[in-house]
Specification:
This protein is α/β, with parallel strands linked by helices and 525 residues long. It has 21 helices and eight strands. Helix 11 (220-234) runs parallel beside helix 12. InterPro entries: Methyltranfer_dom, METTL25, SAM-dependent_MTases_sf.
C-alpha cells in the first residue's frame, strides 16, 4: 500500500533509498495492474465483432511492420464500432499519409475523411492513391489475360447444360443485379500484395437464396469476372478507371450477356455511391473547430485518431462530446511532452483550452505534471524490458551540451531544438558545433579544447546517467496512467456518453503508445 511504498524514499532527505521498492510501486500503479482497462476481445464481442479480424495483412513498401500492426488492429475495431452504431462515415483526425484512412475505406467500405494539418502529408496520401491506380492497371491486365486463357481452355469441353442453366437463371440474376451494391468485401490479394493492403476474404449477399443461386451456378469464368468487378467496390473512386471487357467471340451465351449487364449496373452503382471513398483534407484542428466548415456533407459519423500528437488527442475528445453528429470516438494519443498544461505556468489564460488536465477532479486539485514528467511518459518500458536499450550516448551528449550552453552562454531556456543532430554527427565535438548552430549561438567563442574538457569532465558519469534514465523508464507507465485516466474521467463526466473505456490495442513492444480511449454516445444523442 501507500505506506509501504513510501519507504522507498528517505523521510528526511526525500532521496530514493530503495530502488526495488520503487520499481514495485511503479508496477503496482501501472495501467495493466490497476484493472481499469477493458479487454479488446470483450469490446469486440459486445459489438458483435470477431477478435480475429481481417486476415492476410502483409507489410510492404507502403507500410512498415509497426504501422501494419497498428492499422490492422485499429481498423477492425473501428469497423465494429461503425457497424454497431449504424454509421458509414469516419473522420480520421491527424491522418498523416492516410494509412488508416485508406485501409478503412478499401477494406471495410467506409467513407473516410482524413484531416491533417500538414499539406505534405495530404499530398502523400494523394500520391498513395496514384500508386494504387498504377497497380490496379497491372492487376486488371493480368485478370483479362487469365480470363482469355481460361476461355480458350474451356471452349471445347464446356457442358451443354451450362447454357441451359444460364437461360434458366437469367431472369432472376437480372432481378437481383441491383443488390450488388450491398455485397460485402472480396479478396483482392493479388492487387494488395503490391499496393500495401490485404483485403478480407468474404463475399456476402442479402439473402440465403441469392447466395445459393450465385455460388451454385457460376462457372470458373463467371467467378473470375465477379472478382474483378468486386474490386471496383473497394478501391477509392480516383484510383480506378471505368472497367469494360472486350471479347473476340461473335456470339455470347446468355450467362455472359447477364454478366455484362451486371458489369454495367455495378459501374452505375459505383458512380452513384460514395460510401467507399477516402478524402484527404488539410486543416488545423482545435477544440473549437467546426467540422461542417471542413466537411460539407457531414452526417452521423465517428472520429478516430491513430497517435494523435499532443493536444490533438484531447481536442478530439472535446469535439466528440460537443458535436451531436459524432456518435463514437476511438483515439490513441502520443507525444505527451507536447501537451499544454493549465497549471504549469503561473500566468492565467482563461480563454485557452488546455491539453491537461481535462477532468474536473484534477482541475480542482490544480494538478500539474511538468515537461520532464511528460517526457518520461513517452518512454517505452516494454521495449527496454526485451533488450531495446535507451540511446545512452546520445542522451549523454545532450546532457553535457546543456551544461555547456548554461555555463558558457547563460542560456537556461530556449524555444529552439537540437532535434536529431546526434545521428548526423561524427563525434562529440561535431555534435556540439552542429547543435550550437541550430540554437543560433556563436560557436566561435568556444574552442575545441574547451568542448573536449567538458566531455572529459563528465564521461565518468555516463553510467550514472544511464541508471537515472532507467528509473525514468520504470516510472513512465505511472505518468501515462495519469494522463489517460484524466481523459477517461473527462468522458465519464459527460451526460451524453453511454459507455467509455480504455482498451489496450497494440503490442507495446511494436507500438509503445498502445492504449485507446473509446466512447459511444447515447442512442438518443
Amino acid at each position: 500500500d501507500d505506506d509501504i511504498f513510501s519507504n522507498a524514499f528517505c523521510e528526511s532527505s526525500e532521496k530514493l533509498i530503495n530502488v526495488h521498492l520503487f520499481a514495485l510501486a511503479a508496477k503496482y500503479y501501472s495501467l495493466s495492474n490497476l484493472g481499469v482497462c477493458t479487454q479488446l476481445e470483450d469490446v469486440l464481442e459486445a459489438l458483435k465483432g470477431d477478435s480475429e479480424g481481417a486476415t492476410g495483412f502483409k507489410p510492404d513498401e507502403f507500410m512498415n511492420n509497426k504501422k501494419s500492426h497498428e492499422v490492422q488492429v485499429m481498423s477492425e475495431l473501428v469497423d465494429s464500432i461503425a457497424n454497431y452504431c449504424g454509421i458509414k462515415q469516419v473522420i480520421d483526425i491527424g491522418s498523416g499519409k492516410g494509412y488508416l484512412s485508406s485501409f478503412l475505406s478499401m477494406q471495410y467500405n467506409l467513407k473516410v475523411y482524413g484531416i491533417d494539418s500538414s499539406s505534405s502529408n495530404t499530398n502523400g496520401a494523394h500520391e498513395r492513391n496514384r500508386k494504387l491506380k498504377k497497380h490496379w492497371r497491372a492487376y486488371q491486365s493480368r485478370g483479362k489475360e487469365n480470363l482469355k486463357n481460361q476461355r480458350l481452355e474451356e471452349a471445347n469441353d464446356r457442358p451443354v447444360e451450362n447454357e441451359i442453366n444460364c437461360k434458366t437463371i437469367n431472369e432472376e440474376l437480372l432481378n437481383n443485379a441491383n443488390s450488388l451494391q450491398n455485397q460485402g468485401q472480396v479478396i483482392i490479394q493479388d492487387l494488395v500484395s503490391s499496393c500495401g493492403f490485404t483485403e478480407m476474404a468474404t463475399l456476402e449477399t442479402n439473402t440465403e437464396a441469392e447466395a445459393d443461386l450465385l455460388t451454385g451456378t457460376q462457372s470458373h469464368e463467371t467467378k473470375l469476372s465477379e472478382e474483378v468487378l468486386a474490386i471496383l467496390n473497394v478501391l477509392p473512386a480516383d484510383a480506378v478507371e471505368d472497367f469494360s471487357s472486350s471479347h473476340n467471340c461473335m456470339e455470347l451465351c446468355e450467362e455472359e450477356k447477364v454478366q455484362r449487364k451486371m458489369t454495367s449496373l455495378q459501374a452505375k452503382a459505383r458512380k452513384s455511391s460514395e460510401s467507399n471513398l477516402y478524402f484527404p483534407l488539410t486543416s488545423f484542428i482545435t477544440a473549437e473547430t467546426e467540422l461542417n466548415d471542413i466537411i460539407t456533407d457531414l452526417e452521423d459519423c465517428m472520429m478516430v485518431g491513430l497517435h494523435t500528437c499532443g493536444d490533438l488527442a484531447a481536442n478530439t475528445l472535446r469535439i466528440f462530446t460537443a458535436k451531436p453528429e459524432i456518435k463514437a470516438v476511438c483515439s490513441v494519443g502520443c507525444c505527451y511532452h507536447l501537451l499544454s498544461e493549465q497549471f504549469e505556468n503561473q500566468e492565467e489564460c482563461h480563454d485557452q483550452v488546455w491539453g491537461f488536465p481535462m477532468c474536473q477532479y484534477l482541475k480542482d486539485k490544480g494538478w500539474c505534471c511538468g515537461r520532464n514528467a511528460r517526457m518520461s511518459a513517452c518512454l517505452a518500458l516494454e521495449r527496454v524490458a526485451v533488450g531495446q536499450m535507451l540511446p545512452t550516448e546520445s542522451l549523454f551528449y545532450r546532457a553535457v551540451l546543456q551544461v555547456i550552453i548554461e555555463e558558457i552562454y547563460g542560456v537556461t531556456k530556449s524555444d529552439r531544438h537540437v532535434g536529431k543532430t546526434f545521428s548526423k554527427s561524427s563525434s562529440f565535438l561535431d555534435y556540439v558545433r552542429r547543435s550550437l548552430k541550430k540554437l543560433e549561438l556563436d560557436d566561435s567563442k568556444l574552442p575545441d579544447s574547451c568542448i573536449m574538457d567538458y566531455y572529459e569532465k563528465y564521461k565518468h558519469r555516463m553510467n550514472e546517467l544511464e541508471a537515472f534514465n532507467m528509473l525514468k523508464v520504470v516510472l513512465a507507465p505511472c505518468i501515462e496512467v495519469l494522463i489517460l485516466l484524466d481523459r477517461l474521467c473527462y468522458l465519464k463526466e459527460q451526460e451524453n456518453i453511454a459507455w467509455s473505456g480504455l482498451v489496450k490495442l497494440f503490442d507495446p513492444v511494436k507500438s509503445p503508445r498502445c492504449y485507446a480511449v473509446i466512447a459511444l454516445k447515447n442512442q438518443s444523442c
